[in-house]
Amino acid sequence: MTEREADEAGLAVSLRGVTKVYDSGLVALGPMDLEVRKGEFVSLLGPSGCGKSTALRLIAGLNAPTSGTVRVSRPAAKTGGAHPVGFVFQEPTLMPWTSVRENVRLPLKLANVRPGESDARIDEALAQMGLAEFAGAYPRELSGGMKMRVSLARALVTDPDILLMDEPFAALDEITRFRLNNDLLALWRNLRKTVVFVTHSVFESVYLSQRVLVMTSRPGRIASEIAIATAEPRAEDFRTSSDYAAYCRKVSNALAPSYPGRSVP
Predict the structure, then answer these.
(1) Structural domain for 133, as ranges
(2) Of 114, 125, 146, 176, which has the fewest beta carbons less than 10 angstroms from its beta carbon?
(3) Considering 160, 192, 215, which residue would you say is the last residue of a domain?
């Protein structure tokens, strides 16, 4: 499938027969086939080392596949330093010597966006993440959850069509993680970005996603796909519903072969 064919089919991302072999000889991924529709929220779930993060890096263009094709929809160019893909890493990776505002400015600065134009974009991204009153704060003054909000604002400031998220909430306490899950869902509903979200959590994947894609142990491939068909918008009471429990059990059962002889949480 060509990039044009993928775009016409309404696909934001298409991987066909993709493999990744590192210089050490480690076969990390594939062959892997993956399709993500425009505006869809998809989670990649699987054991450590199965290639989830590798898949994200291939989609982002940070690494090249050893074989196969990676297609990413690239709409007509936007102004203001826009980029088709935004990436949120496991760690916030903020510059400690400068303010929240200047951390969010970084992608626009690298794209040589004029200060007047970038200021408006930064204000919008900070407001989207509830950070307007913290624009002048420094990373050392922020909690872990607030730092991750800054990282999200920095990814959004370029107005990407696709948001790639690599276990962004894994290190946070449960209460903060739940709150950020809710905020991320609200953001996705409002902006309708395509989201590919990597997680180790069955519960998080079911709560957030329209589809959960369960990967095999290394070399990673898509072993099963579970559609999470619920009424929208999802509210907090979904977490305690019988539907949620049933979906979590279904995803856990799909994940179980990757953990032989062990129970799946």
Answers:
(1) 95-160
(2) 114
(3) 160
Q: Are 167 and 89 in contact (CB under 8 A)?
A: no
Q: How confident is the model at residue 264 (pLDDT cuts 50, 70, 90)?
A: very low
Average pLDDT rounded to a whole number, residues 90-114: 93
Q: Are residues 116 and 28 in the same domain?
A: no
69 closest CA partner among 130, 19, 128: 19
Where residue 244 sits, what CATH number does that domain have? 3.40.50.300
- Residue 1 and residue 39: Cα distance in Å, rounded? 20
Q: How confident is the model at residue 136 (pLDDT cuts 50, 70, 90)?
A: very high
Query: Which tokens in the block code for residue 115?
Result: 């200060």
Residues, the chain, total? 265
In 38-76, at which residue ranges do the beta strands (DSSP E only) sit?
41-45, 67-72
- Tell whether 183 and 234 lie within a shared domain: yes
Q: Does 37 map to a domain?
A: yes
Q: Which residues contact 62 (CB under 8 A, 6 or more apart)?
A: 87
Kindly report whether the peptide bond that precedes residue 233 is cis, defined as omega within 30 degrees of 0: yes
- What is the torsional sign of CA 59, 63, 67, 71? positive
**3-state SS, residue 71:** strand
- Residue 253, in any domain of the structure: yes
Domain end call among 142, 160, 178? 160
- Flag whether pLDDT at 65 surpasses 70: yes
The residue among 208, 218, 221, 223 whose CA lies nearest residue 15 is 221
Residues 226 and 241 occupy one common structural domain: yes
257's enclosing H/E stretch is none
Distance between CA atoms of residues 70 and 3, nearest Å: 9
Phi and psi angles of residue 4, each rounded to the nearest 5 degrees, phi first: -65, -40
